[in-house]
Structures are given as structure tokens and as C-alpha cells.
Amino acid sequence: MPSIAELLPQTVPMVRTLNLTFDECTATRAVLRLPDQAEFHNHVGGPHAGAMFTLAESASGAIVLSAFGDQLTRAVPLAVDAKIAYRKLAMGEVTATAELGRPAADVVAELDAGQRPEFPVEVTIRRADGAITGEMTITWTLRPNR
After folding, report:
1. What is this structure's pTM?
2. d(C-alpha 124, C-alpha 135), whole Å
């Protein structure tokens, strides 16, 4: 079975298009990088806001698949809401770190109880100097298969 770092670029065209790289991908944390690429710059020479949104959302998807991949036979993960705040000017390569906002066991317990659980994934986007350039919260659900 392919790793999440192999699976996402194969199945999500934007991951491939933006050349996102995977530094870490576990059930509790995912770290993805957006290389500095002129074709995805904005009007001030840094990464476009849409590229940073895609980076953060992809990091959240990586952690969701890592945490709940064993549930895919009975539920499909879906992003239901996202909020992003751009904090500082991003220049050069940026890195997104995603963390699950609830214990995976609690989410699975709700699924086991016949519910459609929702859970947040918190993502921090940083420049190479460590400055936080953005923060994003994506609410995900596991929609039971019918």
C-alpha cells in the first residue's frame, strides 16, 4: 500500500501541480512544504494566497488520511469548512504543519455510535525564518457510507 506522501500527489492534482513535498506524515502531525516557485508568486513576489491555502488544506488532508485511513471502508473524509488568516508576508519556501484538534479515538467512537463526527485540524504556515505567515482551521467530517 502506498504511503500518504505517495498517494496524495497521485490522487490530488493540485498537490502535484504545486510540487508539495512531505517532511512528516503521522496520525498526529503532518508537515508539508511549498517550494519557492516563480509561477506561483503573487504581486509582491511571495507565494500566492491560493497556493498557501492549498498547502495548508493538503497538510490537513494528509493528517486526516493518516489518522483515519483505516476507516475508509465505512466512511469518506470530507472538508466541510475552512478559515484562514494571513498573518505576515510570506516570501520564499513556506511550510505547513497540521495537527489533529481532537483525539482520533473520540472521532471513531462517534462514528461507531452511528454519528457523523466533525473535528478540526489546525494548521500553521511558516516562512523559512520560522515566522508564522498564516493559520488555518479546517473542519473535517467522516461521512458514513450508506
Report:
1. 0.95
2. 5
